[in-house]
Design a protein that fits this description.
The complex is a heterodimer of chains A (469) and B (764). Chain A is an alpha+beta fold and 469 residues long. Helix content of chain A is 30%, strand content 22%. Chain A is built from 16 helices and 20 strands. In chain A, strands 2-1-5-3-4 form a 5-stranded mixed beta sheet. A 5-stranded antiparallel beta sheet of chain A has the order 10-11-16-12-13. In chain A, helix 3 crosses helix 5. Chain A is globular, with a radius of gyration of 23 Å. Chain B is α+β, with helices and mostly antiparallel strands. An 8-stranded mixed beta sheet of chain B has the order 3-5-1-12-9-10-11-20. Chain B has a 5-stranded mixed beta sheet with strand order 7-15-14-13-8, with helices on both faces. In chain B, helix 10 runs parallel beside helix 11 and helix 16 packs across helix 17. Classes of the chains: A alpha+beta (469), B alpha+beta (764). Chains A and B meet through helix 3, helix 4, helix 5 and helix 16 of A and helix 1, helix 18 and helix 20 of B.
Chain lengths: 469, 764
């Protein structure tokens, strides 16, 4: 043991109701690998990139009122030390003696398992769903983060529909509210995992570990670690930083903390921002949305970047914070190219400011190969203000997958100025977009297809809001 | 009380749902001193290995061994039909092929050490894809040909003719459980290999061959598989051989568990096919002659490519009577992983060709494809192009009419057409397609199975058979058969893990026939036991053995259930009377007989039929589509286990839908696969399930001679996804396409949008 390892100690969490102490495990080790090595082999490794849900487990998190709730996550993407201080449940912990959990019993009775490899993951997804306080009629998209190659979706949906409500004696009902996440300073085998509680701690960590990888929800970094076998001297987790979890609606702006998960954004903006609802529904899967953060999605600067495209159309600003100063940058200037941003070393994206009032008409579209849980081929966000006679006062058209980074097309916005959304305007915008955009093709979509999608999504929008005229 | 025919959950369902069901790698992590093997993979599709230096890797921390050809005590080959699959190659034949394996204390340590193995390659030209192979005349095996008349004369005589081609893509199995093996050596030097294999006997053969052992020193167990779909029929063996070799060399348990990316890179897929066809037909759309030439991409070695191609030839009629067929095919040898069995086994690739022909014929004539399909269905008394009578052919017409009626075809046709007139940028499509699928291994000797049934003196029962449980519900059905045949309750019967030390020389679980074969063997064994027990019961009840009833765990004389003996009590008495309480059962499908040269004869025990009616909606602005409703009417004979069979039908249909519309394997110019995981290779998810999916089984459909009147349904419903493809084509027609509508596979949103653009006369 080096001196550093000795100083870094271990951490604890609660595993299926019992305390669990971890020491000496390499910090990149995924929660999944740890559980399996520990003999809890119900969670399976199938894809290693958070796509299939076979490794799903649930932990207890606080909802916005501080009440406990279960969140099902992909354990393959979670670096083990991230569970420090958490209450974690695996499929093995749900049954009571020889009595299966109601979710397990329902899936069995419905014929929801064939080969059985994916079944624990489906159980964990429906487990959290079973206890969700605002659970309504079952939506099949709840299962979008779990894949079943045997194709048992029908019986699994049947099972989900026939789930009753938890009884008052259910041991999973009325659990204590979780404590705030403790800070973590952990190391083993020469690598470290740091989870500071505030921004100042983050800057200190980055000073001490200049080659550290910052980690928000980890749904991108986890893929690098698991699939591409990336290893860093240190991982610095942002998940305990309270300053990143702000949600403030002022008079002139809505400020969304960069550390809010997509699920949290979805819940907080439900019924108020239709485009955000469209974005969140189309974003990954429930398992991904429970972890992925708004800031993480923006910082990944993917050319299709779902949230980035909507935020561009809403003219959001990035709030960037370094050890010494804070600055604001219009999002257009934040993206420098594919996976390249204007973040300086040591700087953290802390929030996204969406100016108010919000545009009257706002929509988000995502075109992908698969209906749910897929990387977009093209994304589009449209935000318009119309005057009383339906003429465009202000138009913002943003696209992903149409260039090296998410972008707005000012020329097309100018074309719409002062016009009604009629067929001629539709055609003129199409012509401008075709002129302006030169996307590169790849195997997710050829250049011609991407242009056609940009056009098609615009036409869908225009026809929905401008009618047949 | 009938147990067979009851809708019961999978026999391991509770274990699945509680996480207690163990798979190979779950067994592995429970081993003390476990070592993990990881491959050193070649970065070329074709190259000579000039030098391999593992010295540095052997010195890495945690490394127990670096396995190379020098470590093989037996034969360095894992091939099936030929000795053409070196485990450690001197010449690399596909991108990613393992040239050595590091065995180390952890996956992490093994992966790191792999990077320290120095390999020198001399790159060689690679043949990639069917077209390149045809140009280079790069073949595996000889041409296969099947003909039942003078096709040229029939084509010449036909009033009308057309020709064309269709390419059908490969498909990754994406069994959720990757290839896995765990090898252990016991105190006497025998090997136990846990393998995720559909074919334990072949794994045993390969392991014994590589280690230079007699087979009786190697035991292979397949407890349960996390999906297989053909991908583990023969391709589990090399990984089991590596684990066994590692255990042999290191004296410790060794596991192999491929990462998803490795599984993609190293294992074969469904065979891509190219078909070129010429059909003769009359003005009513009746087919008169078909000449079909097929090329499949076999990959680097023969594997199962020959029987796959053979089944494509045999299935190229699908459900249609064509007076003269001349079909021939070749397997292309290319520098990719060796393509292999995948649910349907060439059947889908063969059958899709005639569906393509029929659609083109209909559109050429301006007739509804629906009508043209129906006109060409097999009728009673027909024979196939290989000469087998189409037994129960009248079921096709019955299925078609019943589904038209239950699916409300006529009214919905009108609704769809009316809707399409109202919506310029979205169109709906409707199509009904049939399937006829022959059940049996076309390799005759494989149509055999054995069982060993043990009754303990307390009346509890263990069943051993040669079939592998991979999610298809085989053990569930077998358990029902044993309970039914012995007249005991389901809970009294356990189906034991499949092991080569229980039954030797078993057949792979494949070809939709594992229940037919193993179920029949179990039934026979149970009947033997029941006869013996009947003889014990007869004097007790004072009635002849023929009048003894075994039902629901009770044994009584007919008409006198009140004086029943518990089954366990009878077993105890039988044991005291020295009556053997175990029995073997054997079943052989002797009717199967195919001339391997002419491909004529009776390759199948029987045919399974089905029909599907699909309605889709296609967006003309994005190419996005969804299946609004799919109705399936499946002939399953008398389904022995309706819950299991419904799962098989829905699952196969969804896999077919994925193959035809969603899943796409993309390679770069070096032959390296770019789609190596779930984020790039998209499987059907819950969103691909049709909004409404109705599966019904044909009634009054018992098949005499099969196990309790049942039929195999593992593979046939995969072909029902043709209905979705044809419904999409129907929608394209509504966008204005005239004449033949070309629809490449897989018909992804991009492909569909391009087709819409062509139909509108404004190509992308």
């Amino acid at each position: 043991l080096s001196a550093r390892d000795a100083a870094d100690g271990g951490f604890t969490f609660t595993l299926n109701g019992a305390p669990e102490r971890v020491e000496g495990v390499e910090p990149h080790t995924s929660l999944l690998k740890y559980l399996r090595a520990r003999g809890l082999t119900g969670a399976k490794e199938v894809c290693g990139e958070g796509e299939c849900g076979a490794c799903a487990v649930a932990w207890v998190a606080a909802d916005r009122a501080g009440r406990p709730r279960f969140e099902t996550i992909a354990s393959c993407l979670v670096p083990l030390p991230e569970v420090a201080g958490r209450e974690l449940w695996t499929v093995e912990g749900l049954s009571h003696g020889s009595t299966p959990h109601p979710v397990q019993a329902t899936i069995v009775a419905a014929g929801g398992s064939q080969c059985g490899f994916c079944t624990p993951g489906f159980v964990m997804t429906l487990f959290s769903e079973y206890y969700r306080a605002d659970r309504g009629a079952f939506d099949p998209a709840t299962l979008a983060g779990n894949l079943c190659r045997c194709g048992a979706y029908g019986p699994l949906c049947d099972a989900a529909r026939s789930l009753g409500v938890p009884s008052a004696h259910d041991p999973f009902v009325g659990r204590p509210a979780p404590e705030p996440l403790p800070p973590v300073t952990y190391g083993a085998t020469g690598r470290r995992f740091l989870r500071p509680r505030d921004l100042r701690g983050v800057f200190e960590a980055l000073r001490a570990e200049p080659d550290a990888r910052l980690l928000a929800g980890g749904t991108d970094v986890g893929v690098d670690v698991q699939v591409r076998h990336a290893r860093y001297p240190a991982l610095v987790s942002l998940s305990a930083v309270a300053e990143l979890r702000r949600f403030e609606q002022g008079d002139d702006a809505l400020e969304l903390g960069a550390g809010l998960t997509i699920r949290e954004v979805q819940e907080r903006l439900a019924g108020r921002w239709p485009a955000f609802e469209e974005l969140c529904r189309a974003f990954g899967s429930p398992l991904v949305r429970a972890r992925a953060t708004l800031g993480g999605n923006v910082c990944s600067a993917s050319p299709v970047g779902d949230a980035s495209v909507l935020l561009l159309a809403l003219q959001a600003e990035a709030v960037l914070c370094g050890p010494d100063a804070e600055r604001r940058l219009p999002l257009e200037r934040f993206f420098l190219g594919p996976r390249r941003t204007a973040l300086r070393p040591g700087e953290v994206l802390t929030a996204l400011r969406v100016p108010l009032p919000a545009p009257r008409v706002q929509r988000f579209f995502k075109a992908a190969r698969r209906a749910l849980d897929d990387v977009a081929t093209v994304t589009a966000a449209f935000a318009l203000d119309l005057d009383a006679r339906g003429r465009v006062e202000r138009a913002r058209l943003a696209f992903g997958g149409a260039g090296p980074a998410p972008l707005r097309v000012a020329a097309a916005e100018a074309v719409l100025q002062g016009r009604t959304l009629d067929r001629q305007a539709e055609a003129d915008v199409v012509a401008t977009l075709r002129e302006a955009l030169r996307p590169a093709g790849d195997w997710r979509g050829s250049a011609a297809y991407r242009v056609a999608l940009v056009e098609g999504l615009w036409r869908l929008f225009r026809q929905a809001h401008g009618g047949r005229s | 009380v009938s147990v067979v025919g009851r809708a019961v959950p999978h026999e391991s369902a509770l274990l699945h749902a509680t996480g207690a069901a163990l798979f190979v790698d779950d067994l592995a992590v429970r081993q003390a001193g476990l070592l993990t093997a990881w491959p050193v993979t070649a970065p070329h599709a074709h190259a000579r290995v000039l030098a391999l230096d593992a010295q540095a890797a052997r010195r890495e921390p945690g490394v127990a061994a670096v396995l190379t050809a020098d470590d093989v005590p037996g034969l360095n080959d894992t091939g099936l039909a030929r000795r053409d699959e070196p485990l450690f190659p001197h010449e690399v034949q596909y991108h990613g092929q393992p040239v050595a394996w590091v065995v180390a204390a952890s996956e992490e340590a093994a992966r790191q050490a792999c990077e320290r193995v120095r390999v020198e390659y001399e790159p060689l030209p690679a043949v990639l894809g069917i077209d390149a192979a045809i140009r280079a005349e790069s073949w595996l095996g000889d041409e296969l040909r099947l003909t039942n008349g003078d096709a040229q004369a029939a084509l010449d005589a036909a009033p009308r003719r057309l020709s064309g081609e269709l390419r059908v893509p490969g498909q990754e199995h994406f069994y959720l459980e990757p290839q896995s093996a765990l090898a252990l050596q016991d105190e006497s030097g025998l090997l136990l290999v846990h393998s995720a294999t559909q074919h334990p006997a072949q794994v045993q053969d390969v392991v014994a061959r590589v280690l230079g052992l007699a087979r009786h020193r190697v035991t292979v167990q397949a407890l349960r598989l996390g999906g297989a779909f053909g991908g583990k029929e023969v391709q589990a063996a090399p990984f089991a051989a590596v684990a066994a070799l590692g255990a042999w060399r290191c004296g410790r348990p060794v596991r192999v568990r491929l990462s998803r990316a490795l599984d993609f890179a190293l294992t074969g897929k469904r065979h891509p096919f190219l078909g070129r066809f010429e059909v003769g037909f009359d003005d009513d759309g009746r087919l008169l002659a078909l000449r079909l030439r097929l090329w499949s991409d076999g990959g680097w070695c023969l594997d199962l490519s020959e029987p796959v191609l053979q089944r494509a030839l045999l299935n190229c009629d699908n459900a249609y009577a064509v007076p003269v067929i001349d079909v021939a095919g070749r397997v292309c040898r290319t520098h990719t992983a060796s393509n292999t069995a995948f649910r349907g086994f060439g059947g889908p690739q063969g059958s899709i060709m005639i569906e393509e022909c029929l659609d083109r014929v209909a559109r050429t004539l301006g007739l509804p494809p629906h009508e043209v399909r129906r006109r060409n269905l097999y009728r009673a008394g027909a024979r196939t192009h290989y000469g087998q009578p189409v037994e129960d052919a009248e079921r096709l017409e019955r299925l078609w009419s019943e589904l038209e009626r239950d699916g409300d075809y006529a009214a919905r046709r009108a609704q769809v057409d009316a809707w399409n007139l109202q919506t310029p940028d979205a169109k709906r499509g409707l199509a009904l397609t049939p399937v006829k699928f022959g059940i049996s291994f076309t390799t005759a000797f494989l149509n055999q199975a054995a069982a060993l049934v043990l009754v303990y003196a307390d009346g509890s029962v263990q069943v051993n058979h040669g079939g592998v449980e991979m999610g298809q519900g085989l053990h569930t059905k077998v358990r029902q058969v044993a309970a039914e045949a012995l007249g005991v309750r389901l809970e009294s019967v356990l189906v034991m893990p499949t092991r080569t030390d229980k039954l030797p020389n078993t057949t792979p679980s494949a070809a939709s026939s594992s229940f037919d074969l193993n179920g029949a063997a179990v039934q026979r064994a149970c009947e033997t036991l029941r006869e013996r027990l009947g003889e014990v019961a007869a004097p007790h009840f004072g009635r002849p053995a023929a009048e003894i009833v075994f039902d629901d765990g009770r044994v009584f004389a007919a008409g006198a259930p009140e004086s029943a003996l518990p089954f366990g009590e009878l077993a105890r008495r039988a044991h005291l009377q020295r009556v053997p309480l175990w029995a073997a059962g054997f079943h052989s499908a002797d009717e199967v007989d195919l001339d391997p040269r002419t491909l004529r004869g009776r390759p199948f025990s029987y045919f399974t039929y089905g029909v599907a009616l699909a309605e889709v909606e296609l967006c003309g602005l994005t190419g996005a589509w969804r299946a609004r409703r799919v109705d399936i009417l499946q002939d399953a004979g008398l389904s022995p286990s309706p819950l299991v069979d419904r799962g098989q039908v829905e699952g196969a249909f969804l896999q077919g839908l994925g193959w035809l519309t969603l899943e796409e394997l993309v390679r770069d110019e070096r032959g390296a696969l770019l789609t190596l995981g779930a984020s790039t290779y998209k499987l059907p998810g819950v969103g691909e399930r049709p909004e409404r999916l109705h599966v019904r089984f044909l009634e009054r459909a018992a098949r005499p001679g099969a196990v309790y009147g049942s039929k195999g349904v593992g593979e046939p419903p995969l072909l029902l996804a043709f209905a979705v493809r044809e419904a999409l084509r129907d929608a394209l027609g509504a966008f204005g396409a005239r004449g033949v509508v070309e629809l490449p596979c897989p018909s992804t949103p991009e492909v569909l949008l391009r087709a819409v653009a062509r139909a509108r006369g404004r190509p992308l």
